[in-house]
């Protein structure tokens, strides 16, 4: 039996089942309560629900896992967002004078629509395997920078359900960063700046490459031709060529490149012409020292991660929780492994109707075999293609738990000594 | 002045000036306990305010902060304000315990704490105060020599030591690659390893090597570490002062403290000053009276029938400020947006935000239209049309647009030059001049631009207006810079200085 195409109209029927049988409350709660090393970490966390008809409820909070489970199953939200941890329970915020966010994961949001000026395969909300490569690169570059430069270890990467990815940095020190430190990290990772009135959006202005940029360049370089020159065809039409040429500040050089390009037939030969002109200028010392990374600037403008940095800067910005269902596509916001990002295919992410179909199938097969007992023991999500995402998520939570195990023992130990 | 009421402090501050103020540079850990007259209190506050204001003004001129050009400009400005001595003491400290030096240190100490009282009361005030004080601190720190720095660190229990030679050798290639500036002397410089959160500015602009959460900074950039320590201390202290402020209930002080800042904040344009503006006239106004940033947004909206989030905010609040009513604003946005989306989608996704801008939703605050500073500092990404055209455009694209708008090539050339020198607001003033045939009074706010334009075009009677700020030519001589402007039209709640009470005449001790 073939699974039907997802339609947003079916959500009210499917969501109750999904929240009852599939949503992984266990690991989800273990993650977001962070071992409750700091008391009330879970209780003081803001959640928000988007219900049918775009009804939006902010500042929800839960006492414990059961409470959260019950509430989610009762409301069947179209979307669940996670906010900051406050000093008091968000639901009781009116009872305190100061209600300020205290802690929050450092989050990043990358959205395919920000790449519209460099992708030609799709635009807006659409994505395909060609432009997904931008996300793969973004994920690799950010993951490396956050781990190597900032020393963060607990990064949760989540497909946002339609056209982007989210990254949750969950290390203790990251959750405690203040607003200015957050914006610093975000701006450190933001290279492509300038709006519609700025053609050249990456200007390095230096005679050396900062190590974070060099690392990004090394990740981008081997893929640039196949991704941009071939897939996106950035030198395919005269207009596109002039867009690339507008990134060359020197008039004389631009003309020379244009001339050399026109002698070539294929886009990749045109690209080679561009790089060789720049190389020869550098060799002859004709290029100012702080302009010598021209080719790199062009490559970075076409591929470097484009962050929605306002999401990262704020403490109280809400971000969609993992394992939500995207209301337009029906796809699960599923965690993926950043090291294998290139193997992740957004087209094959399971949709809610597919999952529900899968449990049905599994149950049917098991009952046919007459094995009632084992049927109950298996968690429902294990029976479906959601399992892979949950496994990655559990692995992430397990590593996170190792960091607070030590602290919990310490707390217990100090309690023990007190008894004497 | 005993605001903190911390008794343990008393014994520390009782002593000769030389003991109290051993160093030219202070961290202002301990509040002063002394008796001064009310007029002294006021004078000290005003003098420091002038200093901070000079800093702000010089920053607006666009020179790189702390560059020689910036310093020269600051010196000139401070001399003009009669603060030459203050400038000299800050940049060329004698660091000897002369009486003049000690008196200066005492004044510095007192005035800093007085302004803390005035500037702790809101987020915006605190931010402004911290930013300016930090500049002053940096300016002073950079004027110290190596010995004085060491002495300063010891005095304030700040222990930082350079990384070992082995450690340095191991990461030398990375230091070469990632440390900003010339590599020539790097191998001789000491490097310090500090948490990246201590040197946010250097990390933000990728000027140092960062690894595993630590930044490696050369001794020449050490000022960054110090200023972040100072920033943190000051930020906390201001919050503390704010919490204890209710304890200050002296009827002579409270109004003074509250009024101090008002004249410096400029207008906020929350409520429109002229009559209502009709949305049918917006195209006309866009050509004649809009500053370029708003004209770009307006045209982008007309062409694409859409603006991204921050574009909607920047333009929406501006419209509110010039006098477009909520009803009209709603009609305006709906008419444009519904050309590319259905009414349902607009009502669901955008109508809320329009009402929000007018304080009808959410927190129900009446949001302030963005000032030039805010617009210049906003971050602009692909697909965005907001921001300051003079900052966020390529000079070439800008010049083309200006030409298309019919600006003469001489003006276009002048504007381009100003933009290249990072003088964005001055460039905006030139654009005003080019479109109105007379110079502006200095552009600080898009809504102020609009008001001035309306007056210049004769659409609106000239309102007797005090200069917007200190930098305009006709500030009254021999007057306190902080005397508030006479309030027009509406009563500003915080204008408690108003009228004729001359506080300085009440010569009483403030104990």
UniProtKB/TrEMBL annotation, chain A:
Keywords: DNA replication, DNA-directed RNA polymerase, Metal-binding, Nucleotidyltransferase, Primosome, Transcription, Transferase, Zinc
Cofactor (UniProt): Mg(2+); Mn(2+)
A GO CC term attached to the entry: alpha DNA polymerase:primase complex
A Pfam cross-reference name: DNA_primase_S
EC number(s) per entry: 2.7.7.-
GO molecular function, one term: metal ion binding
Alphabetical GO biological process terms: DNA replication initiation; DNA replication, synthesis of primer
Gene3D superfamilies listed in its UniProt record: DNA primase, PRIM domain (3.90.920.10)
Enzyme class: transferase
Family: Belongs to the eukaryotic-type primase small subunit family.
Name the UniProt record assigns to this protein: DNA primase
Organism: Frankliniella occidentalis
TrEMBL record, chain B:
Boundaries of every DNA primase large subunit C-terminal domain copy: 284-450
Region annotated Disordered, chain positions: 464-511
UniProt keyword terms in alphabetical order: 4Fe-4S, DNA replication, DNA-binding, Iron, Iron-sulfur, Metal-binding, Primosome
GO molecular function term, any single one: metal ion binding
Single GO BP term: DNA replication, synthesis of primer
Biased composition annotated in UniProt, kind: Polar residues: 467-480
Free-text cofactor note: Binds 1 [4Fe-4S] cluster.
Keyword tRNA processing: no
CDD domains: PriL_PriS_Eukaryotic
Example of a GO cellular component annotation carried by this entry: alpha DNA polymerase:primase complex
Matching Pfam families: DNA_primase_lrg (PF04104), DNA_primase_lrg_N (PF26466)
Domain of life per record: Eukaryota
Obligatory cofactor(s): [4Fe-4S] cluster
General function of this protein: DNA primase is the polymerase that synthesizes small RNA primers for the Okazaki fragments made during discontinuous DNA replication.
Protein name in UniProt: DNA primase large subunit
Native source species: Frankliniella occidentalis (Western flower thrips)
Name of the encoding gene: LOC113206829
